[in-house]
Amino acid sequence: MDTSNRDRDDRIDSNRADVVASNRDHRNGSDREGGVGSDRESGVGLDQDAAVWIDQLTHTYSDGRTSLRGVSLRIQVGERVALIGPNGAGKTTLFLCLTGVLTPRAGQLRVMGLDPTSPRDRRILPSKVGIVFQNSDDQLFQPTLYDDVAFGPLNLNLPESEVRQRVEEALRAVRLEGQGERVPYRLSGGEKRRAALAGVLAMRPEVVLLDEPSLYLDPRGRRELIRQLRDLPGTQVIATHDLDLVLDLCPRAILMDAGICMAQGPSHELLADAQRMEAHGLEVPYRLR
Coil, strand, or helix at residue 12? Predict the structure, then answer.
């Protein structure tokens, strides 16, 4: 093993020990007053009131790579939470487990009370949770914008009148009303991002997962996105490297690295912790320095 790999493994082991110690302190009551602490809760009972509930979730890809290692967390209904961490931390894998695309090797999870690993619950899941992928082109594949946004509701076998109403409401929510006949591949990067979001909103999910939503957006498009996300009801989980967006939108942040939830807490406190941020390949946002 070369020195760089050995250093990384040592850091992961050290971080895991820190998480275990922090979790033990949490159970002893040291974090009752709030602040940044471990988000790894061992053996938590099922929280029926949580929008997202995960207990000791582990996922391993077919090549043997473990992408999630005993992840435990809760997100309450109506929260807007950031998921931060370096590349390869497990953020996207976690999203794919929550939407039933990937099946975990161990652990339990619920989204609005549904089990994504259950074939019966998976049939209902798209009406409860939606995901906006990092690359909007992955979600835009129909000949017109209207067709793209209508795709999900049509698969719910809804009446045509309700499908039309949902499409119009979703396009209005992302400020693309009256543009349903446009060809998706001719939309700008910012418009594609909004179109992908409209396709999710048309399903009226109670939980929206957003993977790097500000990627490729210019400053104007980014500001528009922030305004739209602020106006959206329901629960939002935002995986992002845009830490200024986290400060603008998310009261709470969860830090992941190497498939482990390393810490969670108020965003301003977590992101201002220079030592912790540097240990996990991140930087303190300029406005907090």
Answer: helix
3-state secondary structure at position 178: coil
Confidence of residue 45 (pLDDT cuts 50, 70, 90): low
β-pairing, 66-76 vs 260-266, is unpaired
Closest CA to 148 of 127, 121, 166, 134: 166
Q: How many residues does the chain have?
A: 289
Smallest Cα–Cα separation from 177: which of 190, 189, 195? 195
In a domain, 136, yes or no: no
Instruction: Give the separation between CA 71 and CA 47, rounded to whole angstroms.
Output: 15
Q: Flag whether 108 is in a domain.
A: yes
Residues 223, 108: Cα–Cα separation, whole Å:
37
Q: How many CB atoms lie within 10 A of CB 249?
A: 22
pTM: 0.83
| In contact, 254 and 41? CB cutoff 8 Å | no
Q: Mean pLDDT check: name the lowest of 7-11, 157-161, 257-261, 271-275.
A: 7-11
Q: Please give the single-letter amino acid code of residue 99.
A: T
Residue 210 token pair: 């957003």
Number of structural domains the chain divides into = 1
For residue 192, give both structure tokens.
């594609």
In a domain, 43, yes or no: yes
Give the CATH number, domain containing residue 85.
3.40.50.300
Return all residues near 273 (Cβ < 8 A) that are at least 6 apart: 36, 284
